[in-house]
Design a protein that fits this description.
The protein is mainly alpha-helical. It has two domains: about 5-70 and about 185-240, no CATH class; about 90-170 and about 250-330, Zincin-like (2-Layer Sandwich), CATH 3.30.2010.10. The chain is built from eleven helices and four strands; from the N terminus they run H-H-E-H-E-E-E-H-H-H-H-H-H-H-H. The model is unreliable at about 1-5, about 205-220 and about 345-368 (pLDDT under 50).
Length: about 375
């Protein structure tokens, strides 16, 4: 199941990334129009046709400023998104001197396929999880939690690293970061519009109560319709910004699992890593956007359709079916004293034991 570097998936992700950026500006312009419509409805006595036309004209005038503001937001996210994620998760960059064996595991995977090595980070959290971030080769990073290092053996950690490398190679990481940026921009503009609505509504009520009510019926008809349209547009834009994240194909997780197996040639290690991570990946300090980037996201929606990741059971079943791996079922995670320190299990012949004992996976010798 050679999914690593799958050309069609990579090309599709590139197209989706461009479409997401175009969609971002479209949603911003929708919010600008909604804000202009609210402002007109609360300040001008006119029928709905006039309010819509005036709002469209004002939105056109505001569009250059909205475009500039969105570009600034995107540039800030492009430059500083890693620092923001580090602040949320407590991640920090490490070098070979800090974690030589972990560093070597990642470096060997990259060398085996001629991949530019991403930066390596450790998240100081007892949860079992990992995630990749970045928008280009100079920015790509892989973060693993301290809990993951303590609970998984070398082969399982290597499988997790291979999973995240596949996400980078397939363009999943870039697309997820862009989706997070979209959610942030839409939330920001949406909040601005609502603030404008409530402030203008408050002052508008004051003015209308002090003025006569002779035209209130005529004003109310157009204004009520305009306000309803504007609120509906804001709600739709907000929902679309959320749906965009959920619409990102969950197929990416299956492909990343398969890519890890293609890199390591060890489906059992990927399966056992997923079983140990299962329901133990909650990063308490991370928001939902960061959790969506992780190898497993225990924060699922109220229905499977809103889940950002397939269930561990489905992912393991796919690995068993297509790679011949063996599923041990849910696994208990050993305590820190029961887990060998990173690198202790690696014998001279490789990270899965010596060639003499035939150990090739967590369930004993592989049959040849």
């Amino acid at each position: 199941m050679a999914a690593y570097g799958l050309y069609t998936h990579i090309q599709a992700n590139r197209r989706r990334s461009v479409a997401l950026l175009i969609g971002l500006f479209f949603l911003v312009y929708v919010l600008v129009f909604a804000g202009a419509l609210l402002a007109e409805a609360l300040s001008v006595e006119a029928p709905i046709d006039y309010l819509l036309e005036a709002a469209f004209y004002n939105a056109l005038k505001a569009a250059p400023f909205a475009t500039a503001g969105t570009l600034v937001w995107v540039l800030i996210a492009y430059k500083f998104h890693q620092k923001m994620i580090d602040a949320l998760t407590g991640s920090h960059a490490i070098t070979r001197a800090d974690e030589p064996h972990l560093y070597n595991l990642l470096e060997n995977l990259c060398i085996s396929r001629g991949i530019t090595m991403p930066k390596l980070r450790i998240t100081e959290d007892n949860a079992l999880n990992a995630f990749a971030t970045g928008l280009n080769e100079k920015q790509y990073s892989i973060s693993v939690t301290r809990g993951l290092l303590n609970a998984l053996d070398d082969a399982e950690i290597e499988a997790v690293l291979g999973h995240e490398l596949t996400h980078i190679r397939n363009g999943d990481v870039r697309m997820m970061v862009i989706a997070v940026v979209i959610a942030g921009v839409v939330s920001f503009f949406g909040e601005m519009v609502f603030r404008l609505f409530f402030q203008t509504s408050f002052y508008g009520r004051g003015r209308s109560s002090s003025s006569g009510g002779g035209d209130s019926g005529k004003k109310g008809g157009g204004a009520v319709i305009a306000i309803a349209i504007a609120v509906a547009l804001i709600v739709v834009a907000w929902i679309l910004s959320i749906v965009i994240r959920f619409a990102l194909s969950r197929q990416r997780e299956y492909l990343a699992d398969a890519g890890a197996v293609e890199l390591t040639k060890n489906p059992d290690a990927m399966i056992s890593a997923l079983r140990k991570i299962e329901n133990r990946g909650e990063l308490a300090a991370a928001n939902s956007s960061v959790m969506e980037m992780c190898i497993d996201n225990p924060r699922q929606g109220f229905a499977d359709i809103f889940a950002t990741h397939p269930s561990i059971d489905k992912r393991v079943a796919a690995l068993v079916k297509f790679t011949g791996g063996r599923d041990p079922g849910p696994l208990a995670v050993p305590g820190p004293d029961e887990v060998p320190q990173l690198g202790e299990a690696a014998a001279a012949d490789g990270p899965w034991g010596s060639a003499t004992d035939g150990a090739a996976g967590p369930w004993g010798p592989r049959q040849h």
